[in-house]
Structures are given as C-alpha cells and as structure tokens.
Amino acid sequence: MAVHGRLSVCGVQLCNEAGEAIQLRGMSSHGLQFFPDCVNTDSLVALRDDWRADVIRLSMYAQEGGLETDPVGFTAKVNGLVDDATALGLYVIVDFHVLTPGDPNINLELAKSFFAEVTSTHAAKNNVIYEIANEPNGVSWAGIKAYADEVIPVIRDNAPESVVLVGTRGFSSLGLSDGSDETEIIDDPVTFDNIMYTFHFYAASHGADRRAVVARAARSLPLFVSEFGTQTFTGDGDNDFDSTTAWLDLLKDARISYAMWSFSDGRETNSTFLPGTCAGTDFTGNEVLTEAGRYLRSRIRTGVGNPNG
C-alpha cells in the first residue's frame, strides 16, 4: 500500500494510484475453518518481510464447515484478519469461497449479507479486494453474471471504488473445463467498473494449451489468478516446477497478479508450511517451508523459483 496506494482497473490491467500497471504476488489461505491458526500477524509479517510478497487472499468457504455454520463468528474472523493485513500494509483479497455447491446463486443471500457486513466494516480502507465466487462450476456464464449483478451492488454501496474479482465458468477456467473459452465473457461482460475475471490453474494438470488461451484472453480481459498450485488440480501429487515457471513467466509478462494455494501446514503438497508450523510463531525462512513453499518464496524474492531455497 505504501508504494501503490488504491488500485483500480485500467483497460485490461490492474493499476496503482498513479495509473501504472502492476502485478501483485502472494498467497492464498486454505479454508479458514480448516486451518484457523495459519494466517496471523506472525505469518503475515513473514509473508511481507521475508517473502517480500504484497497480497494475502482470505478464503472463507461458504459451506464445508465454513461461513454458513457460524456467520457471525467467521465474519468477525475475516474482519480481524483484514485489519491485521492492513496494519502491515498488505493488500488483502476477501474470497467468498464457493466450491460445493458450485452454483453461486445457491448462496446468493449469504453472499449479500457477508459482503454487506465486511464492506461496511472496511469502507474506509483502500487495500481490500473482493472476490465474489471462488470457482463456479455446474453453472453457465449467464448464471454467474446474474449472481454478479446481484452481489456487486451490495459491495458498491460501501466500497464504490474497490476492485472486484468475478469467478469464471468451469472452476474459474474461463470456461475451458466446460469446453468453452473467454469469448463468452467478452461477448457478455459484467458491466460494472473495476472488475477483473479470475483464472485458476494447477501446473501439473494444466499446461501449454491453457497458457495459450490465457495469453490470448489477457489481451481482451482484465485477469487475476487468485489461486494456483504447483501440482495437480487435486492439490496433491508431485510438483511440476517447469510448468509452474512457464505459467509464472506468462503472468509476469502480462502483468497478471497471482496468489498461490495454500498458506497452510497440511499434508498435501500444495501446503506452504511443513506440518505443525502453524502451532508455533516461526514462519520465516526455508526451514519451515515445503518444497512448493520454498519455490514460490524464491520466485517472489529473486525472480527465479528454486524448490531447494
């Protein structure tokens, strides 16, 4: 925030307060209900100072033991973490994590109440980005757009200038997982200002064919990779760092911002921290990181991803 100030969308780019195109680089939490201790002041300080990252994504699952089970408690947790990130000068993405069920319209009223509360609490802040539907699936682009047309005005009531991320069809694949592509969005875009569209990839599952589509789509649409992994789409299995490097090189060239999944200490290979790390207070250096964590820390710090640190 100290460098870039309030963000906006200018053309197909995310731009800083001076109107310059920028790329945010950072991490996404796992579900806050699954790993409640992994995002805190200590880990955010490490992300900012040790990793030299500038954005954290807070994944608030709508279901799966998440928001709907305790709306008051989980909303308060999100609000507290937004405050923590803001105090450290980080940008923060508030992610309404739709996954199962995949049609965001099923959660329309929950989304409206959640974003009304969060945007009201943080109306004076310039560093908050709102992601309204993580990975829509089993739903058409028209259905996603109808949901966006209902939820975005709720956000705009309190945060009229904030950047809003809109999930795309087929698990935020620009429709590729459903046999479509970016043309359905270009032909029928969300009509609000300061909108970006999300694309997610998992490097061991998604390769050159999808990179070609993203490179093409980025010439017409403002894109934000709000989630990616170095392994398969299951979040587990072997890391594919060659594919990851090709992806991140593309995102760098196109100035597409990203957040890697996930800032957690689970046993899957997509976890950043070694198991047990989040029970402590030390989140700094390679010693607490998995292979995937070491790769991305190196990439952000030096421009070259090194899984050995």
CATH architecture group name: Alpha-Beta Barrel
* Biggest β-sheet description: 8 strands, parallel, barrel
Output the radius of gyration.
Answer: 18 Å
Question: What structural class do the secondary elements suggest?
Answer: alpha/beta
Distance between the termini: 27 Å
- Mean pLDDT score: 97
Q: What name goes with the CATH superfamily?
A: Glycosidases
Which term fits the overall shape? globular
CATH topology: the name is: TIM Barrel
Highest-level CATH class: Alpha Beta
* Strand residue percentage: 15-25%
Count up the domains: 1
Task: Please list the strands of the largest sheet in the order they lie side by side.
Answer: 3-4-5-6-7-8-9-10
Number of strands: 10
Helix and strand sequence: EEEHEHEHEHEHHEHEHEH
Q: State the helicity in percent bands.
A: 25-40%
Name some characteristics of this structure.
309 residues; alpha/beta; TIM Barrel; eight-stranded parallel β-barrel; two-stranded antiparallel sheet; 10 strands; 34% helix
What does this structure look like?
The chain is α/β, with parallel strands linked by helices and 309 residues long. The chain has a single domain (24-302), classed as Alpha-Beta Barrel (TIM Barrel), CATH 3.20.20. It is 34% helix and 17% strand. It contains 9 helices and 10 strands. It has helices spanning 41-50, 71-87, 108-121, 141-158, 169-172, 183-187, 208-217, 241-254, 291-302; strands at 8-10, 13-15, 25-31, 55-61, 91-97, 128-131, 164-166, 195-202, 223-229, 258-261. An 8-stranded parallel beta barrel has the order 3-4-5-6-7-8-9-10, surrounded by 4 helices. Strands 1-2 form a two-stranded antiparallel ribbon. A hairpin with a 2-residue loop joins strand 1 and strand 2 (13-15). Helix 2 runs parallel beside helix 3 (108-121) and helix 3 packs parallel to helix 4 (141-158). The longest helix has 18 residues, at 141-158. It is globular, with a radius of gyration of 18 Å. The mean pLDDT is 97.
